[in-house]
Sequence to fold (365 residues):
Amino acid sequence: MINMNKILDTAIKMDASDIHLIYKLKPMMRIARELKEIESQDIIEENDLYEAYDYFVRGNIDKDEIYKTMKRLDTSFEYENVRLRVNISSADDMPVFTLRIIKAKLPKFEELGVPDIVRRMTYQPQGLILVTGKTNSGKTTTLNALINEINETQNKKILTLEKPVEFKHTCKKSVIIQKEVGKGGDVLNFRDGVKNSLREDCDILVIGEIRDKETMEAAIDMAESGHLVIGTLHTKSCAETLDRMINFYEVRDQASIKYLMSSLLKLVVSQRLLKGTDEKLVLLPEVMVVDNIVSGCIRKEKFSVAELEDAIQGNIDKGSISLINSIARLFVDERITLEQAKSQIEEKNIEVLNRTIMQMKIRRG
Fold:
């Protein structure tokens, strides 16, 4: 018999970020990117998986129907005042569990290593700010730290759309309303939630994930109507983010959407997490501030990733940070190894990285 309470207690005590429950394996924890068995637990059998399913679904008819229909379920769960993001999928017709442990206390924005320009951009009265990165790149933590920073310093009404709601915010200087997206939640999908937000008198709309054209269109409409919209995308760089946004649309519509993006997009931050030389995770950010030069790159008929990367590199005085500069800075600060630094870029850019590292060292004396 599986003992979920003991598994959760162990993972929380060990400061794990995730827990994995998979058939014929012992429960696994992810600690600082490394997967480790919970050795005190037995190998998981089929019955254990269905016991875990009952533990998390708790007889909720809507959640049970979603899993049985879609073969996947995303939900939230609370254990001993610790919130979990629960994903249940299917393999060999049996449940597979991925549990994300949400920190009870958010780190301060300045502790994350996110450049301060991102915080300053939240004072924009309207526009679109995007936080991007692959899975497990810390997007949700950055997003919630940003919400918390606004909550502590600005008098705004903030509406969030999340699937599921992970960190529960308490109103401070701002008013915060958090809505869970999905069947049985507060709103059925992100698109409908964004459209309705136009009637909810919010100053800032936070979209937990922009994953389709309809949600993107609704977010653009919201920004165009005089609101600040902050959203996330699963992309690995600033240039890829723009490419993804453009390719949501048919070729015949891309010219008009490029024009809108060039005027409404204010900033894109793309982030990665690496294990540092001290065994702790370190943030590797790329930041694109959208000025006239970047806007011009976006509006061009043929979108050029290389041209956009050059524009970011040449826009450092306005707050932009290229990926290569960010990597070089972490290496010069001895927070990552040279091998790690080189692994984050293409072979053709190694020489540029070496030159940037040398220039940084010279400037530091």
Remarks:
- The mean pLDDT is 93.
- The two ends are 62 Å apart (CA to CA).
- The longest strand covers residues 265-275.
- The chain is about 40% helix and 25% strand.
